[in-house]
């Protein structure tokens, strides 16, 4: 009897997955063509001169940016150039092509923006982001950023600790996890329709201990100004010791739960993406090694650090 597989609605077809050998071949081709030079930008198979590209910044409340840098969080790597970072983005709601995300965000409306707070929390309700930005002082932090695809950047984020928001809304003792959800606007984000098999909207989660860790940032800006849309405007999570897919973009809902919430990529491919997603060079992805990472902008390959180099802040969370 023939075996017939009936795919689920969110199933990712095999033809949509980039084989590892193609990914690596593209990297070698770009190196051979000299695309990694200082005058160019790396994208998904494309490159343009930096001085031809303008980073579009949404309007923001006056006086927010630039914020003072918190020098406690320093790194030894050079900052990734802004125009490089703005042209290399994973944001499937718009496209799976990293170099094209910034071209497809023009219809995405990021102001006004509201966040729904719900679950086991005293101050549930819907909060206007502008009001939150008036309440919580912003600061700039330079963090290493590591993608599960084995590439990395160094980025100056502006935002406020997630703990500040959590303390303000007062979760109850029953809250053990934080579930976060992003927007769902197919009319504004073409990737939602183009990748209709995904279980939109995107959803992620942290433990309460992770969410209240001093490193965990709710970022609203980058490079000294408001967050451009391709980076996850107007507010996104940054948890620098985890792979980038945990740092959910464009948050519209935060829910405090008793049970560990499902997460987007863990639901789709549990053998490849676990709930924790802590950076670990000793645990390879099923399709590639995590022992090294490629620095976007220079193409240099460097060793991966456990917890992305933030073990002193977070190792105690995991026993």
Query: Order of SSEs, N→C?
Result: HHEEHEEHEHEHEEEEHEEH
Question: How many strands, which pairing sense, and closed or not: the largest β-sheet?
Answer: 7 strands, mixed
The CATH class is Alpha Beta
- End-to-end distance: 49 Å
Summed up, the helix count is 8
Helix fraction by DSSP (H/I, runs of at least 4): 10-25%
> Could you state the oligomeric state of the chains shown?
single chain
Fourth CATH level, the homologous superfamily: Oxidoreductase, molybdopterin-binding domain
Total DSSP E strands: 12
Number of domains: 1
Mean pLDDT: 89
Structural description of this entry:
It is a single chain. With 319 residues, the protein is α+β, with helices and mostly antiparallel strands. It has one domain: Oxidoreductase, molybdopterin-binding domain (Sulfite Oxidase, Chain A, domain 2). The protein is built from 8 helices and 12 strands. The protein has helices spanning 20-32, 82-85, 129-135, 162-169, 190-194, 208-211, 264-268, 311-314; strands spanning 114-119, 125-128, 139-146, 151-161, 177-182, 203-207, 217-222, 225-226, 236-238, 251-257, 292-295, 301-303. The strands form 2 sheets. Strands 3, 4, 7, 8, 9, 11 and 12 form a 7-stranded mixed beta sheet that branches. Strands 2-1-10-5-6 form a 5-stranded mixed beta sheet. It starts with 19 loop residues before the first helix and ends in a 5-residue tail after the last helix.
């Amino acid at each position: 009897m023939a075996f017939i597989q009936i795919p689920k609605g969110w199933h990712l077809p095999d033809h949509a997955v980039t084989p590892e050998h193609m990914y690596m071949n593209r990297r070698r081709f770009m190196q051979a063509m000299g695309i990694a030079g200082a005058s160019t930008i790396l994208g998904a198979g494309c490159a343009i001169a930096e001085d031809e590209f303008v980073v579009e910044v949404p309007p923001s409340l006056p006086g927010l940016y630039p914020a003072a840098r918190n020098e406690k969080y320093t790194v030894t790597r050079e900052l990734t150039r802004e125009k490089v970072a703005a042209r290399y983005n994973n944001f499937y709601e718009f496209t799976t092509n990293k170099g094209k995300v910034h071209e497809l965000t023009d219809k995405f409306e990021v102001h006004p923006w509201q966040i729904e707070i719900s679950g086991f929390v005293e101050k549930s309700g819907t909060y206007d982001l502008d009001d939150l930005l008036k309440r919580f002082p912003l600061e700039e932090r330079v963090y290493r950023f590591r993608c599960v695809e084995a590439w990395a950047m160094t980025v100056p984020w502006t935002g406020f600790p997630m703990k500040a928001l959590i303390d303000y809304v007062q979760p109850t003792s029953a809250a053990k996890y934080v579930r976060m959800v992003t927007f769902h606007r197919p009319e504004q984000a073409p990737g939602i329709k183009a990748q209709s098999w995904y279980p939109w909207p995107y959803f992620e989660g942290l433990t309460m201990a992770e969410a209240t860790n001093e490193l965990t940032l709710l970022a609203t800006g980058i490079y000294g100004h408001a967050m451009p849309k391709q980076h996850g405007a107007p507010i996104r999570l940054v948890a620098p010791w985890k792979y980038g897919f945990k740092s959910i973009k464009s948050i519209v809902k935060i829910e405090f739960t008793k049970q560990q919430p499902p997460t987007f990529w863990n639901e789709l491919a549990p053998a490849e993406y676990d709930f924790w997603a802590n950076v670990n060079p000793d645990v390879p992805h099923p399709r590639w090694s995590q022992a090294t990472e490629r620095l976007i902008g220079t193409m240099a390959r460097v060793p991966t650090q456990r917890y992305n180099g933030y073990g002193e802040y977070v190792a105690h969370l995991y026993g």
